[in-house]
Amino acid sequence: MQVSPSLLSADFANLTPDLEMINASEADLLHLDVMDGVFVPNISFGFPVMKAVAKVCRKPLDVHLMIVEPQNWISQVRDLNAEYMVFHQEACTHIHRTVQAIHAAGMKAGVSLCPATPVGTLEDIIGDLDQVLLMSVNPGFGGQPFIPHVVEKVRKLRRMIDESGSKALINVDGGVNASTGALLAEAGADILVAGSYVFGAPNPNEAIHSLKVL
Question: What secondary structure letter does DSSP report for 149?
């Protein structure tokens, strides 16, 4: 299992120790949740913070844009040397065009779905995606409880990907811990995002390892 700790739960008064912990850990990616107060009812951080993070973090960046008009920020995400740019289907009118532009910028493209959005809406784009990020909480806040029906969404998406021959990885974000992570792993998830479970743990490295071995 790939593990992508979410910076949203880190100590924003002193990010360097948390980033150094991530660098030394078994984490595969660092998840960056960008919120605009429009698409979601909260504001997190922007590109000045992410540029500073990118200078310290040695893990590939998994940038999750919970913002309107994500297509306008492709070059700025590229300049972070991000591995993935992930945007919400619900916030973008021209998904295929945006995916093409992300690829043209040299990044892997992902589409995220809110809990109430069916995975079937990706049927005509799944072959072009590198990642699908399923939200297992309503986007906008960290520390929310896991929404159980997302496990079945993972199963449905797994079947869609396998039947289509898509190379897309399934990522899940929200309420992930060792227990919910085990359910998601069994259903076919490839990547798990974890915020408070990692950064709120007495030993964050052990928390990351507990997901890594699922």
Answer: T
Tokens 């990706």 found at: 122
Which pLDDT band holds residue 143 (cuts at 50, 70, 90)? confident
Contact 128, 99 (CB under 8 A): yes
18-25: long-range contacts, CB 8 A cutoff, minimum separation 24:
18/199, 19/53, 19/56, 19/57, 20/56, 21/204, 21/205, 22/57, 22/59, 23/56, 23/57, 23/58, 23/59, 24/205, 25/204, 25/205, 25/208
pTM: 0.96
**Own/partner pairs, 49-54, CB within 8 angstroms, 24+ separation:** 50/80, 51/79, 51/80, 52/15, 53/7, 53/15, 53/19, 54/80, 54/81, 54/82
Active-site entry in 62, 128, 130, 173 = 173
Catalytic site residue 11?
no
Report d(CA 31, CA 188) in Å as an integer. 20
CA distance 116 to 60: 29
CA dihedral (44, 100, 190, 204) in degrees, to 10, reads: -30
Catalytic-labelled residue, pool 18, 33, 128, 130:
33
The rounded percent of the chain whose pLDDT value lies above 70 is 100
Whether 173 sits among the annotated catalytic residues: the reply is yes
Residue 27 tokens read as 């984490």
